[in-house]
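User: Modeling request: complex.
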Amino acid sequence: MKRIQMAHGGGGRLMQQLLREHVAAVFGEPVMHHDGAVLVGAMADGELVMTTDASVVTPLFFPGGDLGKLAVYGAVNDLAVTGARPVALSLALVLEEGLPLETLDRLLASVKAAADEVGVSVVTGDTKVVERGGCDRIYAATTGIGRRLPGVRIDARRVREGDRVLLSGDIGRHGVAVLSAREGLSFGGAVESDCAPLWGPALDLLTAVPSAPFLRDCTRGGVAAVLHELARAAGVSVSVEEASVPVSEPVRGACAILGLDPMSLACEGRFLAVVPPAHVDAALAALSEHSQCPGAAVVGTIGAADPGGAVWLTTAFGQERPLDYPSGEHLPRIC
Amino acid sequence: MKRIQMAHGGGGRLMQQLLREHVAAVFGEPVMHHDGAVLVGAMADGELVMTTDASVVTPLFFPGGDLGKLAVYGAVNDLAVTGARPVALSLALVLEEGLPLETLDRLLASVKAAADEVGVSVVTGDTKVVERGGCDRIYAATTGIGRRLPGVRIDARRVREGDRVLLSGDIGRHGVAVLSAREGLSFGGAVESDCAPLWGPALDLLTAVPSAPFLRDCTRGGVAAVLHELARAAGVSVSVEEASVPVSEPVRGACAILGLDPMSLACEGRFLAVVPPAHVDAALAALSEHSQCPGAAVVGTIGAADPGGAVWLTTAFGQERPLDYPSGEHLPRIC
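Assistant: Request completed. Predicted assembly structure:
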């Protein structure tokens, strides 16, 4: 089996061979060049959005996805929730000496397939190699640039009392999928990660409801973290009905066994949106067109001004309690 | 001493605290946000250039620089050699559990100072934490976007027989500085890394000689790797006079002792340029204004068409021999 050697990162002949045979073979010539990619005419008009994402997930491959997909969707979805159409991606890799080249090839093919799915290109890259033990097989950093849709302005401060809170699909799948793959657990049927590109649903939602004031993908910290960031940034309270939050049966079961809260589990293909009440039906109709939005639902309401940004959960038993800000202790290296 | 904990990467309260107190404190609010940064009006005209760089240098601090400076200059210099003015940077970090927060703070301050020096902002970021042993303290990936100067077209295929090859300053300092810091060696006086931003010199050179067909910063693999890439991409032979290549005495001494060739040692603040013979004086005059261009000199000449792209070195003794493409085996994790 061919493996990564230190010289693959040394700037010499072996590095050129690695880039030519394994990177340029997938993405084309420009990506192997050390200097930047020129995007002729890409920015004829519109505002530019830039976002970046480091990917350190373990295991590298899990039900429903892998590190390569996460690296692409992570950047694409950050662009999508600012209302920006992805224009180009960069890919920086840190490889561990001894990494099987077959593993690298599988992940690069996955990056390429994910980028193609969104219609965006990886235009430039960098590859470094560290000694055995210097990293855990492979880490990636993707940066995305995009052009914002005209007229769209995603800004938590624009939410108003009475606006409704939507989730684009059922939550918690990515966290459970990675955890079960890592620990060799199975919860009455495989739970697949929800990892998926969100530009399509975001575009359709923002086309149907251009006045939507807030969109955010629910990754580390899950829906709970997004709700707290929204409440704090907007200076409002937010109320969520637990019973209306879409959670699949296998995810619910896994969470019950493991003592996890689906609300703080990472998703990699779901967003939370705030829309004015008059536009809820249009928003749900826009999402219903997309396979990555199963069970999209209204889950809560923006409350009165509250500088502290409280988040309230109405339980299935009708009791109202504060929803904790996740501590961030469980599930490291989830993305 | 405060140290990085796994929960600093978990998406919850501790991560928000880390971002607020250590990242946003340095770069301002926008960088801590998960979604992208909107660059209003940044791209009113001109072509966009995008480049990315992973930084894994060890030690983190070395004479003349540190990982933070390298991360910024790496991206800025890749933009500079395409003739693009830096517009914005992103910063993705992978932190090892147990990293002293003081070390993180020093490196972030260094990133900020380096970016300020170039007049560019870090506009977005991402921070991941891996378990102890999952990386070596800290790795960074920076992506830069820039706007290309109108009329400039850097393309190896535009070099012509008789064009002259310039180096912007003395070579080999970064490689020797990092190696001596790593091994605790000293070579008759400290050798400092040449790491420096190259946008200023590149701008002045391209303003003085807009027809310059080729510019490339000499990083991993050093000047030798750049010469080979140039010769191959242009389909020409290139001849270099060893005696005219600027190398400082301490670097020369260190290379003699260690059996290293300065031509294949990494620089982090030097570029190679090709200019038509009539413009050599204008090019050297432009570089002479800049402190990061000590000893800029003409070192060679573009030869006849040669699909194999041979690189010839005329030694101090007047003999001509092929210059090897560096193997990339020595000096891992140099940048």
